[in-house]
């Protein structure tokens, strides 16, 4: 019988070494780490195999081993890798595939915004060319309090941020605009419960929007994605169908950005 190919052995060893790294990442408690025994038992490997697999990870500083307890935890190299990954992320690029997929599924305009209080700034827009075009444009700003994207983000901000939005003023632009602080806070509570927000003709008289927050690698809501369309197409009934779809899309983008939600 022929000997296994060296490449195959190396590939198997690499996969097992990555399994060691992933298990430490997921299960090492803050400041405590994982003992060699626990790590070996969890992965179904012998202690000697774990020691062999962990050695190059320690050399690369992806893992550290406490000199006194022998426990394993992530090393500084893992932090540097994470920082390098985050430095390459661009929200528009990360969200592009999901935004186009969502537009194709719902056949409505999809917006991507970032939070810049007291406004949101539109950074991307994916349109269904067969529909009436939305008036929004990339680079434009709209107050947080009267947009679905703004409220989706604001719902996950501290109370101080809500107070700042209220203090900046909440004038009405349609007869449906929320201009009362108590009503806005109640609306933010509902958004946190259901996971998505609705602009029911609050910014434009004939337009409804449904949005959900996007969380970054610190699990902070710093951006949002929305579906927008005329009220004739996005009815109250359809809002309840679109809400979970946009929330699921936002969650996938969040995870690509490093969120643990």
UniProtKB/TrEMBL annotation:
In what residue span(s) does the HTH iclR-type domain sit?
Answer: 11-76
Natural source organism: Streptosporangium oxazolinicum
Key words of the record: DNA-binding, Transcription, Transcription regulation
Per UniProt, what is one Pfam family of this protein? HTH_IclR
The cross-references to Gene3D superfamilies, in alphabetical order and at most eight, read: 3.30.450.40, Winged helix-like DNA-binding domain superfamily/Winged helix DNA-binding domain (1.10.10.10)
Q: What is the official name of this protein in its record? A: IclR family transcriptional regulator
Q: Which PANTHER family match?
A: HELIX-TURN-HELIX TRANSCRIPTIONAL REGULATOR, ICLR FAMILY (PTHR30136), HTH-TYPE TRANSCRIPTIONAL REPRESSOR ALLR (PTHR30136:SF24)
> InterPro entries, per this entry?
GAF-like_dom_sf (IPR029016), HTH_MetabolicPath_Reg (IPR050707), Tscrpt_reg_IclR_C (IPR014757), Tscrpt_reg_IclR_N (IPR005471), WH-like_DNA-bd_sf (IPR036388), WH_DNA-bd_sf (IPR036390)
**Residue ranges occupied by any IclR-ED domain in the UniProt entry:** 77-259
Q: Which domain of life is it from?
A: Bacteria
Transmembrane feature ranges: none
């Amino acid at each position: 019988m022929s000997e296994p190919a060296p490449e195959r052995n190396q590939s198997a060893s690499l996969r097992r070494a990555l399994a060691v790294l992933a298990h430490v990442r997921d299960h090492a408690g803050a400041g405590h780490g994982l003992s060699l025994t626990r790590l070996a038992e969890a992965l179904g490997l012998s202690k000697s195999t774990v020691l062999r697999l962990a050695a190059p990870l320690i050399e690369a500083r992806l893992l550290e081993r406490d000199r006194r307890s022998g426990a394993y935890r992530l090393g500084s190299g893992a932090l540097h890798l994470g920082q390098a990954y985050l430095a390459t992320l661009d929200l528009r690029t990360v969200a592009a595939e999901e935004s186009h997929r969502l537009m194709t599924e719902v056949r409505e305009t999809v917006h991507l915004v970032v939070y810049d209080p007291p406004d949101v700034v539109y950074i991307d827009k994916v349109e269904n060319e067969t529909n009436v075009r939305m008036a929004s444009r990339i680079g434009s700003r709209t107050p947080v309090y009267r947009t679905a994207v703004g409220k989706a983000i604001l719902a996950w901000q501290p109370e101080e941020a809500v107070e700042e939005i209220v203090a900046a003023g909440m004038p009405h632009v349609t007869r449906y605009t929320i201009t009362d602080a108590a009503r806005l806070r109640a609306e933010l509570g509902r958004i946190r419960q259901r996971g998505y927000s609705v602009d029911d003709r609050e910014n434009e008289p004939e337009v409804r929007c449904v949005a959900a927050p996007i969380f970054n690698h610190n699990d902070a809501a710093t951006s949002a994605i929305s579906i927008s369309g005329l009220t004739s197409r996005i009815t109250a009934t359809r809002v309840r169908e679109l809400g979970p779809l946009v929330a699921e899309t936002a969650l996938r983008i969040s995870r690509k950005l490093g969120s643990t939600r």
